[in-house]
Amino acid sequence: MKILRTLAETKRHIDSILSGGATIGFVPTMGALHEGHLTLIRKAKMATDHVTASIFVNPIQFNNPEDLLKYPREEAADIRKLQDAGCDMVFIPTVDEMYPVPDTTIFEFGNLDKVMEGKFRPGHFNGVAIVVKKLFEILQPHQAFFGEKDYQQLAIIRNMVSQIGLPVRIIPCKTVREPDGLAMSSRNKRLSPEERAMAPVIYRILRKAKNLREQMTVQQLTDWAREEFSKHPAFALEYFEIVDADTLQPVESWENNDRIIACTAARLGNVRLIDNIKFF
What we know:
Layout: E1 2-4, H1 7-19, E2 24-29, H2 35-47, E3 50-55, H3 65-70, H4 75-85, E4 89-91, H5 95-98, H6 117-120, H7 124-139, E5 143-147, H8 151-164, E6 169-173, H9 193-198, H10 201-212, H11 218-230, E7 235-244, E8 260-268, E9 271-278
Parallel strand pairs: 1-4, 2-3, 2-5, 3-4, 5-6
Antiparallel strand pairs: 7-8, 8-9
Helix pairs in contact: 7-8, 10-11
């Protein structure tokens, strides 16, 4: 597996791959890799000729400086995991390499970035869009693979690709979970043993909400879920929303809505966890 750190050497390498007619699959990461990331690598391996990944903790998508400082960095272990999963190349740039000058691009996503995560993390999705656009332009993938745990991020990236007309196909992949249902996340490493034992409550509430759909109105189900979180005082619920899976706007009725998803975010101690479940 090639390990590249500069734009110049990466461009030369990508040009040589493309000149040979190979297709490129790409998995962007911020490191601290887990089985969810590696599943994306394997899916890319099955779908394309040459699998690339990136490890870059993108500072401009963190609205909380403390989160940026605490984000786990495990480069040596990440490289071993990527190599074992069959990745062909990993791009590991510095902040200066990615942002030699500040990038002041402002994207317009309509209402996609105004709800849920957007309310609690101002500027987050603009920072995500900037870095993903840069990575797509550098690595020139034919297909890029993203987990559905970050469902709103997936919607934003699809919108950005459509807006700009980038020649990359976005491949959504199912959330990978621990045996107890907790969605795999790099942030899980920051949970204490006691918090880790409590964390699966999030998915249990989501699953039960899905099962209760036929018995309640949208508002009743939303109120029920919020009440369930209140029974677990270790959690500080930020939101529980039932939304249209395409527009991400809240739905008021099950009628005429066949693509609905429930999304939630809660803090457990100092760790912010997000998850979702499709109702279709």
